[in-house]
Amino acid sequence: MKKNLDYYMNLDYEIIVKKVKPEDGAGWFAYYKDFKGVMGDGESADEALQSAQEAFKAFVTVMLESKESIAEPNEADKSLRINISMPERLVKKIDDFIAPLHLTRSAFLQKVAMKEIGA
After folding, report:
1. Cβ neighbours of residue 12 under 8 Å, at least 6 residues apart?
2. What Gene3D superfamilies has UniProt attached to this entry (predicted)?
3. Contact present, 11 and 57 (Cβ < 8 Å)
């Protein structure tokens, strides 16, 4: 298979999309987890995602033109979205605990799980 622009654009890279706090300018921010500096923003999550994808397309184009290697997604580190249930009171306590740490629930639960199981 020829590793051209279409090849890289169709790989399953992880893109993180986050809401920007009003005090930081509001809107949405998206970035490619595996490529520092490949990011985008917008008024909506979709706009931010599209902006990041356009930045990635430009990045890949430059890398291909300069014949530099481009990392492919690492399946071992790929995030998996899960649905869990817990008491609302516990969710509130977690949110209150992590707010000053500037962590997401997911990041906090990952840290706790890795600490408990030694991963």
Report:
1. 73, 78
2. 3.30.160.250
3. no
Is 54 within 8 Å of 61 (Cβ atoms)?
A: no
Phi, psi of 43 (to 5 degrees): -75, -20
Segment 12-28 mean pLDDT? 90
For the full predicted model, state whether its pTM sits above 0.90: no
3-state secondary structure the chain: CCCCHHHHHCCCCCEEEEECCHHHCCCEEEEECCCCCCEEEECCHHHHHHHHHHHHHHHHHHHHHCCCCCCCCCHHHCCCCCCCCCCHHHHHHHHHHHHHHCCCHHHHHHHHHHHHHCC
Give the integer Cα–Cα distance in Å for 103 and 19: 13
pLDDT tens readout for residues 33-75: 889 899 999 999 999 999 999 999 999 999 999 999 999 987 6
